[in-house]
Amino acid sequence: MLSHSNHSVTGTILVADDQLSNRELFYELLTAEGFDVVTAMDGVEAINQLSRVAVDLVLLDVMMPKMNGFEVCEKIKADADTYLIPVILVTGLSDKENRIEGIRAGADDFLTRPVDRTELLARVRSLLKLKHRTDELERAEAVLFSLARSIEGKDPYTHGHCERLSQYSARLGEQLGLSEDQITALRRAGVVHDVGKIAVPDAILLKPARLTPDEWAIMREHPVIGERICSPLKSFRLVLPIIRHHHEKLDGSGYPDGLRGDSIPVTARVLQVVDVYDALTTDRPYKKAFSNTDALKTMKEEVEKSWWDPQIFDQFVRLIKSTKSLSRAAAAK
Fold this sequence. Notes:
The chain has 333 residues and is α/β, with parallel strands linked by helices. 57% of the residues lie in helices and 7% in strands. It is built from 15 helices and five strands.
């Protein structure tokens, strides 16, 4: 007898198989357990179904016309909209080569024909539980990103700041040869680095004049508050140090912890260089936007004061110059 908790796992499953009898078998087994099932008779139809229906799991036959299961799986895993959908490859071939090809294509699990009903349901439920957790995580991230953008939206002067930071930090991270995980963290941190400003009153946040010492003390709390807001998300493990330390300076005069030199995480040093540049090159209530040349000149002086990392700054200058020359070339076409 199946327990009630097993039945509580629900979802929409796409079954792709060129044999009608196989599609009908899966349809019967899965709908009897309370799952919604959509079917496809070949690989191309499977891809089309994915663009039409919100699918939680895909059961793919390996040998299909037009596009085989490996190719469909690869396509699913290469698309940002579908790569988190678990894929089970169903094959009559139990040899090692096919498994290895399936793993290369990004398959999450395998079933060998003839399919055992109990094994099928166990694997489907296990992957759907994982998918539901991933969806919850994605929703939590989406809420945080919305919160960060709503803070940015309060101030017309900072419009587009998050997107620019996210984009440039990731590109600078790539240029510096940082790991894929660090680059992803920079892309996320670009959006949420100032989320702690939710706790800063608008009168301080939007004040056009210089802040008083008391107001400045409140403002300096935002990296710590931002870290606290984002800390429940395990997927933000590498983002938290960037949020907390993007206002530190190499000479120890930054905040909130007065870190010095290499004790400031490299990802935080990357974001702060991009952050400073963006602040200098956009209009703010207390100053007009600097030209590109003046901004880099000002930053070079600050590098000489041991505020920003000189090697990261040099790479950033190269990135800016290459971007500007690309823009000019595109405009000349």
